[in-house]
């Protein structure tokens, strides 16, 4: 698992080449503010090989945040992350590793009959009740999430995951009331608190797409304050003195800035964006889709682009995401060692200051 000593050793190795704010904190760990995502790509051996090279390059270039999920590329992404972690010139204690559970994963390739696979592998085996499945492919029930966590530990071949996310819990809102989703999340948080005590994970959180960047009236809205409250109740139930609910993941980029502009969360002094709410609540924020799967490269408005530092559109796009208040690390997906070097090099430039970032939206 990532440790304070290990991550600060990593920071000392690469920090002199980076701008002052490149490394940030998750509790007492030092983490790079450019992270590597592993969602993109087909589930093929060729893409596995490309990811292996990309992940090792990232870890050996100054990026010590790696994010994945069990369903990414039919479990292949987790497995190649595990191989790269074992072989890269970086100790496990230096790397902050996150993964997710929620969407039912296939195994290596898409089965001819997905519905039958889900029934045989998960429902008939008793791992998940069919009533807990949304769209036949997503669950956040405690027993199911624990099963997914165990599979992720095996796929990654690690003893401990640093941050484990419940993946897109808002998917459940399509088929059950919001209060029922909160109740199920609290039960799952209780299981995750126990897994923290067992040493299987260090922290947990939620990775979302819509939940925190839509208005309260939206069918996919979730209240972050309520999730924090449920996590505190879960920690209390298992006898933990404090919750280990530590991080959230939200999409954020120059073309999709709702996490900053949408005041959807009920703050102590009025409605505020999820970025500000999370920052004031002491949570770490990891941004997904930081380059919008490449769309940002052709779409940074001139008025914004001129305020950003970086030699390439990718670097300026990454630095936009890194500039937002409360962002710990901007995740960028890539299967190219050259691109990951370019993205990490964005960290040699200071991001925008708070006033300059705010001015973008005036």
UniProtKB/TrEMBL annotation:
This one is known as Aldo/keto reductase
Please report a single Pfam family linked to this protein.
Aldo_ket_red
Q: What is the lineage of its organism?
A: Archaea, Methanobacteriati, Methanobacteriota, Stenosarchaea group, Halobacteria
Family annotation (Gene3D superfamilies): NADP-dependent oxidoreductase domain
What are the residue boundaries of the NADP-dependent oxidoreductase domain, all occurrences included?
34-214
Top-level taxon in the UniProt lineage: Archaea
